[in-house]
């Protein structure tokens, strides 16, 4: 009896994957999530729509994976020996130009999540959960060092505080977030709320 070989999903090279993700983010900046189509991605990247669906399943997964690929893999690699140092190092991973571009991109995606449950679900699974996990590691190290009390009520809001400072800079001040603003915000708001050293 002869065995029938099962078809295997073709692997896209890391270079091609990065190229596809960059094109997706460019399209996202140009037209926004709702107007972005798999046809447009296929045309921009000279791919077949069938390949895109086979690799990513749909628009939401492709967009979120592109966003994740664009983010520096940061938190699990940062350990400066202090919570303040870790949070400042996190901010320094991207220059002001990149922070501004990514901030505008994330605002657009956040707006689209309100009417796209599949996008919201993919965003939570691919971006929010890994971020929470990384922040938990940073906080646990700070607790272990004695910088933050384990029962500090502000601990569960660390990510909320960080995202809040990032998002409201444009909303309230009509300016993009910057390294200077974010490090000042960490020292003036985040660390005092956690009872952590600010110097």
Provide structural commentary.
67% of the residues lie in helices and 0% in strands. With 199 residues, the chain is mostly helical.
Topology of helices and strands:
Elements (H helix, E strand, L loop, with lengths): L13 H18 L6 H8 L3 H8 L2 H12 L12 H9 L4 H18 L3 H29 L12 H16 L5 H16 L5
Helix pairs in contact: 1-2, 1-4, 4-7, 5-9, 8-9
Order of helices and strands: HHHHHHHHH
Radius of gyration: 20 Å
Distance between the termini: 73 Å
Main sheet, how many strands, which sense, barrel?
Answer: none
Average pLDDT reading? 87
Spans of at least 5 consecutive residues with low confidence: 1-9
> Structural class, from secondary structure content?
mainly alpha
The outline comes out as elongated
Residues in β-strands, percent: under 5%
Please bin the fraction of helical residues: 55-70%
Number of strands: 0
Helix tally equals: 9
Brief synopsis:
Helix 4 packs parallel to helix 7 (117-145), helix 5 packs antiparallel against helix 9 and helix 8 (158-173) packs across helix 9.
């Amino acid at each position: 009896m002869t065995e029938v070989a099962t078809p295997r999903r073709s692997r896209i090279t890391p270079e091609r994957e990065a190229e596809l993700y960059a094109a997706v983010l460019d399209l996202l900046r140009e037209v926004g999530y709702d107007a972005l189509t798999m046809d447009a991605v296929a045309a921009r990247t000279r791919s077949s729509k069938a390949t895109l669906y086979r690799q990513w399943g749909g628009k939401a997964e492709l967009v979120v994976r592109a966003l994740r690929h664009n983010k520096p893999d940061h938190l699990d690699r940062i350990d400066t020996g202090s919570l303040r140092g870790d949070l400042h190092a996190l901010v320094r991973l991207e220059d002001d130009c990149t922070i501004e571009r990514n901030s505008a991109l994330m605002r657009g995606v956040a707006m689209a999540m309100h009417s796209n449950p599949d996008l919201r679900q993919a965003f939570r699974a691919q971006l929010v959960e890994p971020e929470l996990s990384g922040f938990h590691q940073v906080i646990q190290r700070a607790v272990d060092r004695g910088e933050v009390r384990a029962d500090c009520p502000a601990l569960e809001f660390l990510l909320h505080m960080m995202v809040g400072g990032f998002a409201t800079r444009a909303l309230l001040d009509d300016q993009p977030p910057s390294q200077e603003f974010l490090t000042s915000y960490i020292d003036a708001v985040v660390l005092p709320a956690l009872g952590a050293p600010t110097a």
